[in-house]
Sequence to fold (162 residues):
Amino acid sequence: MSKSKKKTGNTSSTIALNKKAKHEYHIEERFEAGLALLGWEVKALRAGKGQLTDAYVLLKDGEAWLLGAHIMPLNTASTHVVADPTRTRKLLLHAKEIARLVGKVNQTGHTCIPLALYWKKNRVKCEIALVKGKKLFDKRATEKERDWNRQKQRIMRDAQGA
Fold:
């Protein structure tokens, strides 16, 4: 008799999303970066204990760093180390990508933020984006468009049901 290995936990490849990003910024360009993590952090992310709410990307000395990302340590996985949930983590990108990001960020109004953490095969990847901040009227226009699309869906659904 052979035992089948069942996958437990999260079946989706997405670990954490930065939901505020699309509301706060115009996304101009996206990059996929690797993430240098410790063992306890990988275990915590497998359990879905990561969040990107107030995280941002710092470009310094030709390197990219993820600041403010919160990975909640598991009691079982981090017994022998002092776990810092908001430590600065290194983003792994090609030198050309970092140079492109640095060039754009030095322009006025551009910044770099993380959009999502996800699994790719058995590695953790971070989707980062080059963004430009939205003005208040842009946010209101986006909200208005979203409400109108929702209303259109309701009208179409009611028309088909009648």
Summary: The helical segments are 20-24, 39-46, 95-105, 136-161. The CA atoms of residues 30 and 129 lie 4 Å apart. Residues 1-9 have pLDDT under 50 and may be disordered.
